[in-house]
C-alpha cells in the first residue's frame, strides 16, 4: 500500500477367447489356425497421476501446469463506455502480444493462492510469528523456483496485528506469539522478472471479528468493481468509503462504526516497483487522475475500529531502495558494501532485516542507517492506528487489459 503525507504404470490384461476357446483342436490333434493363434494382449498404460501440491507447499507450480500455461483470474467486463474494446481488432491484437507477460503474472498469482490457502488453514494461536513468516516465504521460494532477482518473494511478509495496519514483520530473534484474539493482516507478494503480485487477507481465530472482515472485504470488492480504463481514482475512493462506513461491528461488547484508514491507499505497480506513482484512495476527495490501459493495480482497503488514520510507530523492519535514486557518494565503506549487497539481492524490491540475516549479513545496522540517512534506502516503519483498535485488510492485484476487461489476477476460491 501507499501512505499519504510418476506413479507406477499397470498392465491391464485382456483375455480374449475364440468361439471354441483358445485351446480348441481338430480331431487329428492339430490346433486350427483360427483358434490357436493367441490374440496379442493389449497393454494399456494408465496415465501418470497429475502432480499434486504438498503440504506445506513445495512443488513448483510449473510442474502442476504442463506447458507452463497458468490459469487466468476473474475477468470483469469493461464499463459501458469501453465495451467497444471487446471487438476492436487492434486492442485484441495488442492483448495477444502481451499474453506471455500476463502468463508470468498469473504464475505469481497461482503461487500466491496456493501458499495463502495453506497458511490460512495451518496457522494457529501459539505459533511464533517469525516461524509462520518463514514457512510462508520458503513456500513461495519453492513454488516460484527462486532465481535471484528474476523470480522470488516480492517483499517481506506483512503480518501486522490488531491496531498495526501494515509494514510489520518480525525481525530476527523476535519471540512474539500469535494470540487467539489477534487480527492478523497477511500481506505478501510474488514476482517474476519484476512483475509483482500483491495480495492480502485478514486472519482471525474468533468469529467476533467476522463482521469487521466482511466490511473490509466488501469494500475491497467495491473498489475492484469500480476500477477500469478511464476511471477516475477519486471515484473509486468515494465508492469504497461509502461501503466501508455503512458497516457497524460489535467487539467485546462495544459497537463501532467501521472507518477507512484515510491515509492508506492502493497503488499502481510497475516492474520492480511496488509503488509506481498512482495511488488508489479509499476515501472520497482524491485526485481525478484516471486509470489507463495496460496498468496493474493493487486494490486494497483497510477498515478500522479506531480513529481511521495511521502514524509510523515501532521498530522498523521494512526497507526499500529508492527507485529513482542516482549516484550518491558514500564515505562509510561498510555502507558501500551493504549497498552492493542490496543491489545484487533485492534491487528496488522491498526487503527486511531477516532477509539480510538470511544471506549472511552481520553488523549492518549502522551501514543501513547511513544508506537511509543519505536517501538511498527508504525505511518503512509500522503504520498504526490507536492502540486497542482493530484493523482489517483485503487486497487483490488487477490488470486493465486492452480488450477483454479487468482481470482480477489473484482471485481465488477463498476470496
Automatic annotation (TrEMBL):
Reaction equations catalysed: Release of N-terminal amino acids, preferentially methionine, from peptides and arylamides
**Cofactor(s), names only, from the UniProt record:** Co(2+); Zn(2+); Mn(2+); Fe(2+)
Q: State the GO CC annotations.
A: cytoplasm
The residues that the entry says bind substrate are 167, 275
Q: Name the residue ranges with Acidic residues bias.
A: 7-22
InterPro entries in the cross-refs: Creatinase/aminopeptidase-like (IPR036005), Met_Aminopeptidase_Type2 (IPR050247), Pept_M24 (IPR000994), Pept_M24_MAP (IPR001714), Pept_M24A_MAP2 (IPR002468), WH-like_DNA-bd_sf (IPR036388), WH_DNA-bd_sf (IPR036390)
Question: What keywords tag this UniProt record?
Answer: Aminopeptidase, Coiled coil, Cytoplasm, Hydrolase, Metal-binding, Protease
Its predominant location is: cytoplasm
Q: How many and how are cofactors bound here?
A: Binds 2 divalent metal cations per subunit. Has a high-affinity and a low affinity metal-binding site. The true nature of the physiological cofactor is under debate. The enzyme is active with cobalt, zinc, manganese or divalent iron ions. Most likely, methionine aminopeptidases function as mononuclear Fe(2+)-metalloproteases under physiological conditions, and the catalytically relevant metal-binding site has been assigned to the histidine-containing high-affinity site.
Family of the protein in this entry:
Belongs to the peptidase M24A family. Methionine aminopeptidase eukaryotic type 2 subfamily.
Instruction: Provide the protein name.
Output: Methionine aminopeptidase 2
Q: Which organism does this record belong to?
A: Ostreococcus lucimarinus (strain CCE9901)
Amino acid at each position: 500500500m501507499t501512505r499519504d503525507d510418476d506413479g507406477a504404470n499397470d498392465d491391464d490384461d485382456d483375455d480374449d477367447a475364440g468361439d471354441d476357446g483358445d485351446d480348441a483342436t481338430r480331431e487329428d490333434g492339430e490346433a486350427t489356425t483360427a483358434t490357436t493363434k493367441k490374440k496379442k494382449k493389449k497393454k494399456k498404460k494408465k496415465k501418470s497421476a497429475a502432480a499434486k501440491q504438498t503440504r506445506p507447499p513445495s512443488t513448483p507450480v510449473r510442474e502442476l501446469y504442463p506447458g507452463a500455461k497458468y490459469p487466468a483470474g476473474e475477468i470483469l467486463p469493461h464499463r459501458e463506455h469501453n465495451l467497444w474494446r471487446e471487438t476492436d481488432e487492434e486492442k485484441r491484437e495488442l492483448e495477444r502480444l502481451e499474453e506471455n507477460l500476463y502468463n508470468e503474472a498469473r504464475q505469481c498469482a497461482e503461487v500466491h493462492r496456493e501458499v495463502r490457502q495453506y497458511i490460512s488453514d495451518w496457522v494457529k494461536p501459539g505459533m511464533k510469528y517469525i516461524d509462520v513468516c518463514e514457512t510462508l516465504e520458503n513456500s513461495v521460494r519453492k513454488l516460484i523456483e527462486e532465481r535471484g532477482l528474476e523470480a522470488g518473494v516480492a517483499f517481506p511478509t506483512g503480518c501486522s496485528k490488531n491496531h498495526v495496519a501494515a509494514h510489520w514483520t518480525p525481525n530476527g530473534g523476535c519471540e512474539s506469539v500469535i494470540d487467539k484474539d489477534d487480527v492478523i493482516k497477511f500481506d505478501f507478494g510474488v514476482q517474476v522478472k519484476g512483475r509483482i503480485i500483491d495480495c492480502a487477507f485478514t486472519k482471525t481465530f474468533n468469529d467476533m471479528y467476522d463482521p469487521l472482515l466482511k466490511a473490509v472485504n466488501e469494500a475491497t470488492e467495491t473498489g475492484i468493481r469500480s476500477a477500469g480504463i478511464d476511471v477516475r481514482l477519486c471515484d473509486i475512493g468515494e465508492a469504497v468509503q461509502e461501503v466501508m462506513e455503512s458497516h457497524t461491528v460489535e467487539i467485546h461488547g462495544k459497537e463501532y462504526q467501521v472507518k477507512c484508514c484515510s491515509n492508506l491507499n492502493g497503488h499502481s505497480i510497475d516492474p520492480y516497483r511496488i509503488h509506481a506513482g498512482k495511488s488508489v484512495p479509499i476515501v472520497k476527495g482524491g485526485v481525478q487522475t484516471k486509470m489507463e490501459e495496460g496498468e496493474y493495480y493493487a486494490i486494497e482497503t483497510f477498515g478500522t475500529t479506531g480513529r481511521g488514520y495511521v502514524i509510523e510507530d515501532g521498530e522498523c523492519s521494512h526497507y526499500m531502495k529508492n527507485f529513482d535514486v542516482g549516484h550518491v557518494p558514500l564515505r562509510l565503506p561498510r555502507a558501500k558494501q551493504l549497498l552492493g549487497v542490496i543491489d545484487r539481492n533485492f534491487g528496488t524490491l522491498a526487503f527486511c532485516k531477516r532477509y539480510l540475516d538470511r544471506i549472511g549479513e552481520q553488523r549492518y545496522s549502522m551501514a543501513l542507517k547511513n544508506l537511509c540517512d543519505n536517501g538511498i534506502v527508504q525505511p518503512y516503519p509500522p503504520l498504526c492506528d490507536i492502540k486497542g483498535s482493530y484493523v482489517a485488510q483485503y487486497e487483490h492485484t488487477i490488470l486493465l487489459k486492452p480488450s477483454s476487461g479487468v482481470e482480477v489476477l489473484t482471485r481465488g476460491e477463498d476470496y
